[in-house]
Design a protein that fits this description.
heterodimer; A: mainly beta; 4-stranded antiparallel sheet; globular; B: 6-stranded mixed sheet
Chain lengths: 118, 114
């Protein structure tokens, strides 16, 4: 397994369900990201983790709850979502920011999870 | 506000021809990278090319090259000898703010005509 993987690839859920998205990176990186990509809109950064610590939360509603148990895994827990949350959710990773990695190092993306909220 | 602008929502090119996609950005950082990603129908975001802002030489990766104008904050992507597999949405990305975030442009949908 190489690169960045995401599961599931497709998810359909009702507004009262609770589900989780999983991201795993095999690149030895220490920074991980969640993005939301809606139709007709640019990628929106949701959360950033560096060495398992959350460093950014871009005003994301609390119905999205991230978790980063280690540098290789990132989860996005979902509960009581709204239909407008339907989108492609992309995970990315990059080199950490303290080991000489340059500012905004290259981010490598997973294939995404296509989420549909009914 | 940090912004990245791609002024061409759609572009088309004949197979084997050359096409240039435009991008302008606005950052207060002095040392940074700029990126072009492509997103084919599979929706996988794939890095195409990266430019280091402190390097005057334009980056090149096989058929892909950039025209980087730092003073003008312009970062265009040139695709030479276009192939059918180049058809995708292309996103330009630049750093935003002090939080090591990337801001992505709205994308340019490239169609390659046989």
């Amino acid at each position: 397994e190489t690169g960045v993987t995401q599961t599931p690839r497709h998810l359909v859920m009702g507004m009262t369900n609770k589900k989780s998205l999983k991201c795993e990176q095999h690149l030895g990186h220490n920074a991980m990201y969640w993005y939301k990509q809606s139709a007709k809109k640019p990628l929106e950064l949701m959360f950033v983790y560096n060495f398992k610590e959350q460093t950014e939360n871009n005003s994301v509603p609390s119905r999205f709850s991230p978790e980063c148990p280690n540098s290789s895994h990132l989860f996005l827990h979902l509960h009581t979502l709204q239909p407008e949350d339907s989108a492609l959710y992309l995970c990315a990773s990059s080199q950490d920011w303290t080991s000489g990695g340059s500012f905004t190092d290259t981010q490598y993306f997973g294939p995404g999870t296509r989420l549909t909220v009914l | 506000a940090q912004t990245v602008t791609q002024s061409q929502p759609e572009m088309s090119v004949q197979e084997a021809e050359t096409v240039t996609l435009s991008c302008t950005y606005d950052t207060s950082e002095s040392d940074y990278y700029l990126f072009w990603y492509k997103q084919p129908p599979s929706r996988q975001m794939i890095l195409v090319i990266r430019q280091e802002a402190y390097k005057q030489q334009n980056a090149t990766e096989n058929r892909f090259s950039v025209n980087f104008q730092k003073a003008a904050k312009s970062f265009s992507l040139k695709i030479s000898d276009s192939q059918l597999g180049d058809a995708a949405m292309y996103f330009c990305a630049a750093p935003s703010g002090s939080a090591r975030q990337l801001t992505f442009g709205s994308g340019t949908q490239l169609t390659v005509l046989p």
